[in-house]
Amino acid sequence: MSLAGRVLILLALGCAVFAVVAALLSRRPGRRIWQKSAERAVYTTFALMSGAILLMVYALLTDDFSLTSVADYSNSTLTWYYKIGGLWASEAGSLLLFGWILSMYAALVTWLNRQRHREMMPIVNAVMMTVTGFFCFLLSFATSPFDTLAVRP
User: Fold this and answer.
1) Quick check: 48 and 11 in contact, CB under 8 A?
2) Cα–Cα distance for residue pair 146/38, rounded to 1 Å
3) Rounded to 10 degrees, what is the CA torsion of 145, 140, 8, 24?
4) pLDDT tens-place string over residues 102-143
5) Burial of 30 by CB count in 10 Å (0-12 exposed, 13-18 middle, 19+ buried)?
6) Is the separation of the CB atoms in 63 and 70 below 8 Å?
7) pTM for this one?
């Protein structure tokens, strides 16, 4: 589970970087294909971040104490809603939650403006994916909710 969560976050980081590059490349005239690619990368980033957060919620609900976040901020006797609350109890869990919310808003803004504001959307996508990519970078290299314990309790 730890490896799957880390891979999902790294893939989300890659998609966010690609979305930024594709969105900036689409600013030139006649490059509509890059804008579509950037939009699809935004949706993919949201899907990958959703997978990572669902994996973390699953680990909390099933008491997977091999993960440091679950061992430190959950308990097998807690009710399900307190276990889910353990998601944002740690720094890494909060970063995961904020990154997921940001990617959700980015996908929503991209979807709602797919026919409007076409000239402005590449810059909007680039900015939103830069911030999302920063969160993914922190989750990948600084702190991770998918860190494992050396010995499972």
Assistant:
1) yes
2) 28
3) 140
4) 999 999 999 998 788 777 889 999 999 999 999 999 999 999
5) exposed
6) yes
7) 0.91
